[in-house]
Amino acid sequence: MISSAPPITPTSRCSRPAHHRRAIISVTDRQAAARDRLAALRLQLAWGADEALAEAPQDRLRAPIPSATPLPTPLGATLPPDGPAVAGQPLAPPQAFRRGGGEAAARAWELAARAASREELRAALAAFDGCALAATATNLVFSDGNPDAGLVLIGEAPGAEEDRTGLPFVGAAGQLLDAMLASIGLDRGKVLILNVLPWRPPGNRTPSDEEITICLPFLLRHLVLVRPLRLVLLGALSTRALTGRSEGIRRLRGRWTEVSVPGLEKPVPALPTYHPAYLLRTQAAKREAWADLLALRRALDADIEKSQTLTKL
Asked: In this structure, is residue 294 part of a structural domain?
C-alpha cells in the first residue's frame, strides 16, 4: 500500500529558518532592482543614447540625487560651463507682451502683483474673468510638484486630461515627462511644474498671442514667489513666451539662455527643449531630448557642488 503524503500546512510552509527567508527576500529585491535598471537602459536606448558619457557608471536608483536647493548666493546669472547662452544679454519678455491684451492684460498685471503668496495667486487666477479660456475650461490648472525645489518646468497649456484633473502633465505626455525626469534622477517631488496658460484652449488649439499676454503676468508672478534657480522651457510656445524669441524650438533647444523676470534681482538660466507631446509624435527627436536632459543634469550637479563649496567657506 502506498501511503499518501502528509498535507502541507501553513506551519510547514513557513518552517524554513529565518535567515533562509531573509536570503530569499534579498534575492527578490536584487531581481527587482535589476529589472528597474534594465527598464532605465531601455528608456535611454529609446532616447537614442548609444555611448557612455561618464568614466564610471552612476547608480541613480540606489542613491537618489539631491535636488537643487537654494544657495547662499543665487545663481540667477550663472550659466553652466558647457552650456553657451543663446543671447549675450538677458531677455525681458514682458516688454514684448505688454503691447497687447488691452484692459484685461493690465488688470492681470495688477492682480498678479498684489499676490504675496502662491495661495493668493491661485485665488486671484480663480477669480480672474479677463481671459475667455476660463469660461470654457473645466478646471484651473495651477501647478504640481515642489515649489521649493529650485527647478521649474514650464509647459504650454493644459490638455483634456489636465483640464479634467486640474493638474499639469497627467496624460500621455505627462507619463513621458515623468520617465524623462526619472532617467536623470528626478521626479515631481524635486521640480515644480507650471504652464504658460492655466486654462485649456478649446479643442487643444494653439493659444493666441492675446491669451498668452493676458496669462503671462500670473506666470511671471509665480516665478517671483518661488524664486527658481533654473527653468526648463517645454516646447516652442513656452520658449517664445518667456524669452521673446521667434526662432523655432529646433534652433533654440539644448542651449542655455537667461530669462529676466520682473521682481527677481537676476536673470534665471533657462533651457529650452522639446515638449513631451512632440516627442510622442516625433520619435527621431528623442535623441536630442536626451542630450538636453544630460545638459540639465550636469547643470544641476554643478549647482549642488557649488552650494556645498559655499557652505564650507
From this structure: yes
Please give the backbone phi and psi of residue 273, each rounded to the nearest 5 degrees, phi first: -155, 175
pLDDT at 301: 95
Strand spans (E) along 200-308: 230-234, 257-259, 268-273
- Number of other residues whose CB lies within 10 A of the CB of residue 132: 16
At residue 48, what is the residue type?
G
Smallest CA-to-CA distance from 216 within 96, 66, 65 is with 96
Order of strands, edge to edge, in the sheet holding 230-234?
A: 144-145, 192-195, 151-155, 230-234, 268-273, 257-259
Tell me whether residue 59 is in a domain: no
- What pLDDT, in 10s, does the model give residues 220-273? 999 999 999 999 999 999 999 999 998 999 999 999 999 999 999 999 999 999
Q: What does DSSP assign to residue 14? A: T
- The three-class DSSP label of residue 87 is coil
Tell me which residue range forms the domain holding 136: 93-306
> Which of 150, 128, 18 lies closest to 76, judged by CA?
150
Query: Are the C-beta atoms of residues 194 and 155 closer than 8 Å to each other?
Result: yes
- Tell me the CATH number at 240: 3.40.470.10
Domain assignment present for 134: yes
Q: Rounded to whole angstroms, how far apart are CA atoms 232 and 238?
A: 9
**Domain count of the chain?**
1
pTM greater than 0.90 (yes/no): no
Cα–Cα dist 157/61, whole Å: 31
The number of residues making up the chain comes to 313
Handedness of CA 147, 132, 215, 186 (dihedral sign): positive
In a domain? residue 110: yes
